[in-house]
From TrEMBL:
GO molecular function: mRNA binding
Gene coding for it: cluha
Protein name per the record: Clustered mitochondria protein homolog
Protein source organism: Sander lucioperca
One example of a Gene Ontology biological process annotation: intracellular distribution of mitochondria
Subcellular location: Cytoplasm; Cytoplasmic granule
């Protein structure tokens, strides 16, 4: 028996070892085979456009002909053409054909660009394209949040593109004189938080005017007789030289006609300048246009592509300068068409969103190329749908869409626009009366969206969800959904064949739905269960009762209303007769919540099941051990590992047939103990209907229900007892470092903690012994809690404001919230008095048209009272403050930070200028300071699964030390990400950052620089210019700049990062220590010693505060400060700091450790220097001017030594790859030491590999 066991164990282990790799490797190998399929080798074709030299273009066989069109429309010399065909040997190529399918197209083929006759559609596209070219450097689209444009400022700090300037600057003297002094407000200790530097002035944006006016003429459309002459439309222009011209767009091109503003004369003028492109025409009649247009295009193509590519989802900026409003015919036209921008290209009128969303899901997914195609299609449709839904939701709230039930009162109205269904987040027809009325109706859409996200991620074939987007705009919550075919013609009662439309009073089920939902039950941890219907018959469900199944006219099985996909959260759901564990009751749970829809997050369910699984394994292993010990006393030395392995085997045999009875009993006990739904294997699922008010369960499942109730209590307790403490622990050891509200929320969500627990989390932090080291976390948490309470109040406050008073109301609210001015009075717009008299007569129908002025009576005192009571009732947290100044004083908050948080959360855009919040004589904001109000949008983010697996296995390889393989995998992931998402995406940003880091570690600095530059640009564009992630990207980029010898750029980038950090979270934050150490080191490198000390000493203070005075980080900080003092020849101070560092090393690592030895060497050296200096001084005192002085060695630090310290503090570790590499590394280190023959002034270069065991603090 035992031998058998042993043999079994050995193979097991071998298998598990292989398993560890085989899963990934097997996957990768098959993947790599497939990847090769996609990247068929590219080839080069020649392109000949009219009037230009032929040029070469690199293309790939997968591309469509259309993509070559796009390239030509973007190239500087061909960008003015839109209406052309590509011809190969006189044959026109089909736009939608893939290049590989075209006969005769090969390396070196010549493609001719042939001008085609215009149609009205082509003429419109041409005018729109020319307008886009003229506006290509104008940031106003980014400020207005349209067409997926967003801001980026990196190029201002790097003076254009890093790659080129790096090569240019190298030639001059290495330490060129650079002005290193930062602006006053960036220095440590400065209390000033200006807003204007957030958007530095970009000289590229100085508009080069090419045209004064380009607009549609009032003579459109052409009358019948002119249509028969080929007139398509008329344009009106004013050139920079003030020449007014009328232009005809005809099938042959554009020419001047003889019309004026008031007389119509469509005859061509003489000369008519007939040209195929508008640009050619204008260049002939306006010299200024010709000159400026050329310059503009030069500048446009010089910009980094990432500065101008559209982002997948719109990013809004909460600040903007005053932008002049210029005439723009395309914008004017877009505003009044229901279609979006380029959708005129799409045949048919509006898009059938539901059909598009569902057909992309049905695409095949058997191999990698198919999956990529499918994921790309899904992602594209989702981002288009989100844009259309957002636009529609704004139109609905602004009152520009007619309701489908116009007779009802405004809050009950529903809308259809562009094939999307819109409903408002109010409790219509008392649907949610039992669950919390309007509060429940407000929470339901986001819960539903989470459900859609979860089912979408499981991606079961044959089960369909609706496209869903939730938009918060002007105080209203709008849900936008795609429309199930045929649902509008039928009554809901007839069409629902699964689930319940009245919260469980009547329930129906359907075998096909059960079969489909059964496939989601395991990944989503949903237990199938029986409930009773109104006739007391048992009905089987595999989801919550509200989840409805409807078969559309297209025959697809849809599920909707997924608001209870995840089980209820008992900490916020008091139930009569149910008790929570004592520990929870002590903390005040269960708490009353606004609504009864509070449910646990998916992340929590996953964490809880994981936790239970470990528990299960432990228990079973323990019982098996006991059995073994009692069974064979004579052979008790069998290691526990074997049993655990054997157990793992028994779990696999789910039917439990081949297990010996003893083990079966063990598994049974363990299953019971952890609440598994099966008795023979570990399987935890939740019944989402437990505690739903209308649902009744049959008697025979009473046991099950009891078990499920217990499981829910356990999960709720797990959140409070495990997840919150683990979050706080992660913040203490700095593995979680939130910097602002959004990153704080993210770190809560990652651990499955809902934001409604924020008060509980803060109380827990308050009771933690190490509270001082969590000050940053507590401060950000309080700020988040306050701005969220303010947001809740602002929501209802805005609902009562009519459109004409919007900016007055928003500025008044911000004054009450942030200004120290005690009696802030709202200015009612004067014309309101007129309109109010009129509006009494008619019932206004716009949801946002409340004709009241109650908002004007809000006072700061009242607002802060409301915030405190909201904090108490929603977060169960007490804020004892009556005004903004008390809050700022008590919790160390900053008003600019609060302004940013509230603006981002509510979509306010304010004028960028310096606000005086602290004046007691006048309010900080006037209505002119409120520029816009944007929607806040929640939507599904479809994932690129294959790319993500590559990325993860790349990361794993890197962590095991296989840098080269890791690098290849991550490059592969990058290709796949680009394939699915296009060029811009958060995940691509992470990919580029990791690649840059690997390039850097492997010594390829220019490549690191190029990848990191992309990462910074992308982070600015996709996340926002002051997002914490962007700040980090700036820091990485500055390190690579320094390594590339671009010192002044490195400093500018660090100063930018510091400014953003001060704005977003203030100086008091552990990350600031890292930033300041970086700045201090670079300044040390350029010999700005005094400045360097200010930053390094600040870093030392912050490190001491957040890591405790005994930490290795602090020792390193002391050492860095000592080096600067040494360079200044202030040896006494240097000795003092190095001694502190030495003590820490000695206590933490012991005398013999290499760090301790280095530190003691350095101390000896400093002492010698100090003695030598003293001798020299004495000599001078004694003998006066004729003393013989031995020259002292004062050395500027070498760049290599500064870089090395930068690498250490930024946690960059050079991992040895193999014995051979180790030897190379050693040789390299020795070479460096010889290079650095600068006495012992430099810290001895350590053998890098040792750092891993050293536990040198790594961020």
């Amino acid at each position: 028996m035992v031998n058998g066991d042993g043999a079994h164990e050995r193979t097991e282990e071998a298998e598990s070892k292989q398993d560890g790799n085989s899963e990934t490797d097997g996957g990768e190998e098959s993947n790599e085979q497939e990847v090769i399929v996609i990247q068929d080798t590219g080839f080069t074709v020649k392109i000949q456009a009219p009037g230009t030299e032929p040029f070469d273009l690199q293309v790939s066989p997968q591309e469509m002909v259309q993509e070559i069109h796009q390239v030509l429309m973007d190239r500087e010399d061909t960008c003015h053409r839109t209406c052309f065909s590509l011809q190969l040997d006189g044959n026109v190529l089909d736009n939608f054909a893939e290049l590989k399918s075209i006969e005769g197209l090969q390396e070196g083929s010549l493609l001719k660009v042939v001008e085609e006759p215009y149609t009205v559609r082509e003429a419109r596209i041409h005018v729109r394209h020319i307008r886009d070219l003229l506006k290509s450097l104008d940031p106003s689209d980014a400020y207005n949040g349209v067409d997926c444009n967003s801001l980026s400022f990196l190029s201002i700090f790097t003076d254009g593109d890093l790659g080129d300037s790096g090569k240019r600057k190298k030639k001059g003297n290495e330490l060129e004189q650079i002005d290193c002094t930062p602006p006053e407000h960036i220095l440590p200790g400065s209390k000033d938080r200006p807003l204007v530097p957030l958007q530095p002035h970009n000289k590229d944006w100085k508009p080069m005017q090419c045209l004064k006016v380009l607009t549609m003429s009032g003579w459109n459309p052409p009358p019948g007789n002119r249509k028969m002459h080929g007139d398509l439309m008329y344009l009106y222009m004013v050139t920079v030289e003030e020449r007014h011209v009328s232009i005809t767009a005809s099938t042959r091109g554009f020419y001047l006609n003889q019309s004026t503003t008031y007389t119509f004369n469509p005859k061509p003028s003489n000369p008519s300048f007939l040209s195929h492109s508008l640009v050619e025409l204008l260049s002939q009649i306006s010299p200024a246009f010709k000159k400026n247009f050329t310059a503009l295009q030069k500048r446009r193509v010089q910009r980094h592509p990432f500065e101008r590519i559209a982002t997948p989802f719109q990013v809004y900026s909460w600040t903007a300068p005053q932008v002049d409003h210029a005439m723009d015919c395309v914008r004017a036209e877009d505003a009044y068409t229901s279609r979006l921008g380029y959708e005129e290209h799409i045949p048919g009128q509006t898009r059938d969103w539901n059909e598009e969303l569902q057909t992309t899901r049905e695409l095949p997914r058997k191999n990698l190329p198919e999956r990529l195609l499918r994921e790309r299609a899904i992602f594209k449709v989702h981002s288009d749908f989100a844009a259309a839904a957002t636009r529609g939701a704004m139109a609905v709230i602004d009152g520009n869409v007619m309701a489908i039930n116009p007779g009802e009162e405004t809050r009950m109205q529903m809308f259809i626009w562009n094939n999307i269904f819109f409903s408002l987040g109010f409790d219509v027809r008392d649907h949610y009366r039992e669950l919390g009325g309007d509060a429940a109706a407000h929470a339901a859409p986001t819960n539903d969206l989470n459900g859609v996200r979860a089912y979408g991620a499981v991606d079961v074939e044959g089960l369909y969800t609706l496209g869903t987007v939730v938009v918060d705009y002007r105080g209203y919550r709008v849900t936008a959904q795609s429309i199930i075919p045929g649902i509008l013609e039928r009554e809901q009662e007839q069409s629902v064949i699964y689930g319940s439309i009245d919260f469980g009073k009547t329930v129906v089920s359907h075998s096909k739905y059960l079969e489909l939902l059964e496939k989601t039950s395991r990944p989503l941890k949903v237990q199938s269960h029986n409930v009773l219907n109104e006739k007391n018959e048992t009905v089987e469900l595999c989801s919550s009762v509200e989840c409805k199944g409807i078969i559309g006219n297209d025959g697809r099985h849809y599920i909707l209303d997924l608001l209870r996909t995840f089980p209820p959260d008992l900490n916020f759901l008091p139930v009569d007769g149910e008790e929570l564990p004592l520990e929870s009751r002590r903390q005040g749970f269960p708490r009353q919540h606004r609504h009864r829809l509070a449910c646990l997050r998916q992340e929590l369910i996953e964490a809880f099941v994981e936790h239970r699984y470990l528990l299960f394994m432990k228990m079973a292993a323990l019982q098996l051990m006991q059995q073994k010990v009692s069974r064979d006393k004579n052979n008790s030395n069998i290691p526990g590992l074997a049993q655990a392995k054997e157990l793992a085997e028994t779990l696999v045999a789910e039917d439990g047939s081949c297990i010996d009875p003893k083990s079966r009993e063990v598994v049974l006990n363990a299953c019971k103990a952890v609440g598994s739904i099966s008795n023979t294997s570990f399987d935890i699922r939740f019944n989402p209907d437990i505690f739903s008010p209308g649902v009744r369960f049959p008697d025979d499942s009473a046991d099950d229900v009891q078990k499920q109730k217990q499981l829910l209590k356990d999960a709720a307790f797990f959140l409070v007892s495990c997840q919150i403490p683990s979050l706080v622990k992660d913040c203490l050891d700095h593995s979680a470092l939130p910097m602002d509200g959004a990153t704080l929320t993210e770190s809560l969500h990652q651990r499955g903690i809902n934001v409604r627990y924020l008060g509980t989390v803060l109380e827990f932090v308050d009771k933690t012994p190490a509270k001082a080291q969590l000050e940053h976390f507590y401060r950000i948490g309080i700020g988040e809690l306050i701005t969220r309470c303010a947001k809740h109040i602002f929501k209802t406050y805005l609902q009562g404001v009519e459109l004409s008073a919007l900016s007055a109301a928003v500025s008044h609210f911000l004054n009450c919230f942030l200004s120290s001015f005690p009696d802030s009075v709202a200015h009612l717009p004067p014309d309101e008095l007129v309109s109010r008299r009129k509006s009494r007569k008619r019932r206004n129908r716009v949801p946002g048209g409340g004709d009241n002025t109650a908002w004007a009576s809000l006072t700061p005192n009242e607002l802060w009272k409301n915030i405190a009571s909201e904090a108490k009732s929603y977060y169960h947290f007490t804020i004892e403050c009556e005004s903004v100044d008390q809050v700022v004083e008590k919790y160390g908050l900053q008003k600019t930070t609060l302004l940013r948080e509230i603006s981002v959360k509510t979509g306010i855009q304010i004028l960028i200028k310096e606000y005086n919040f602290d004046s007691r004589h006048k309010p900080a904001f006037t209505e002119e300071d409120i520029l816009n109000i944007f929607p806040v949008v929640k939507h599904v983010n479809p994932k690129a699964s294959d790319a993500f697996h590559f990325f993860q296995s790349g990361q794993a390889k890197v962590q095991q030390g296989f840098l080269k393989e890791g690098c290849e995998l991550i490059n592969e992931a990058l290709n796949l990400f680009n394939n699915v998402y296009g060029a811009m995406h958060v995940e691509i940003c992470a990919c580029l950052r990791l690649l840059a880091r690997l390039n850097y570690i492997m010594g390829d600095h220019p490549e690191a620089l190029s990848n990191q530059q992309k990462a910074v640009l992308m982070s600015e564009r996709v996340l926002g210019i002051e997002h914490p992630n962007t700040i980090q990207e700036y820091m990485h980029l500055s390190l690579y700049c320094f390594a590339n010898g671009q010192l002044s750029t490195a400093l500018k980038l660090l100063y930018r990062a510091r400014y953003l950090m001060l704005l977003v979270s203030g100086e008091n934050h552990p990350e600031m220590a890292l930033l300041d150490s970086n700045i201090g080191l670079v300044l040390h490198g350029v010999m700005e010693y005094d400045l360097s000390l200010r930053f390094l000493e600040n870093a030392l203070t912050i490190n001491t505060k957040y890591h405790g005075s005994r930490s290795l980080k602090v020792a390193l900080s002391h050492h860095l400060v000592a080096r600067v003092y040494e360079s200044k020849a202030e040896f006494r101070s240097a000795l003092q700091h190095e001694k502190e560092g030495y003590t820490i090393y000695k206590n933490q690592m012991g005398e013999a450790h290499e760090k301790t030895r280095e530190s003691s060497e350095y101390l000896k050296y400093l002492t010698q220097q100090a003695v030598a200096l003293q001798r020299t001084m004495n000599e001078i005192y004694k003998n006066g001017s004729n003393a013989s002085i031995t020259p002292l060695k004062f050395t500027a630090p070498s760049m290599a030594s500064v870089l090395e310290q930068l690498n250490i503090i930024n946690g960059i570790i050079f991992i040895p790859l193999s014995q051979k590499d180790l030897e190379n590394l050693k040789a390299e280190v020795q070479r460096r030491q010889q290079l650095q023959e600068l006495g012992k002034s430099e810290e001895p270069t350590e053998d890098r590999p040792l750092e891993l065991e050293d536990k040198i603090p790594i961020d």
